[in-house]
Amino acid sequence: MAKLIVNTLLFQLGWFACVFGGDSLWLLTVAGVVAVHLLWTSSWAAEGKLLVSVFIAGSALDSFLLNLGVFDFGEPRTLIPLWLAGLWLLLATTLNHCLAWTAQPWWRGSLLGAIGAPLSYYGGAQIAGVGLPYGTWQSLLLIGATWALVMPVLHGFAKLYRSQYEQSLHARQSV
């Protein structure tokens, strides 16, 4: 239970560092959170694959939304800023830990995504000065609908890598 609380607190610390710090040295907080996370996990390989997959998929998704005009960072860009990509890395650290309860049944993840993601994006946008050109409610509804689909997919990544780790562990023990 203590590790789940620490996992939650580390995620929140990283979230604040990214949103308040932007693309500054505060991003080193993300590196620290990830380092602590990896030190506590039993499988660096499986957890590392999950972190990289969520980072890439999430950054691509938010960059896609950026190019659709959902976000305005105050300057022309085609890729999201590093601080927003860092939030995806932080989220990945929670999937097998403090957010594991949202994996089964699938609708828990969808519900969390549909409600929690718009709140997080709205709070982050307000703090970081990110515009929502489609309008607040329209953007938040789109984000909520997207995340209702995204969370079960992210849990699918987590399950896949966890399963691969367990299979390789079993194979090593059989030898």
UniProtKB/TrEMBL annotation:
What does the UniProt keyword field contain?
Answer: Membrane, Transmembrane, Transmembrane helix
From what superkingdom does this record's organism come?
Bacteria
User: Does Transmembrane appear among the keywords?
Assistant: yes
Spans through the membrane: 13-38, 80-99, 111-134, 140-158
**Carries keyword tRNA processing?**
no
Pfam families in the record? DUF2878
What name does this protein carry?
DUF2878 domain-containing protein
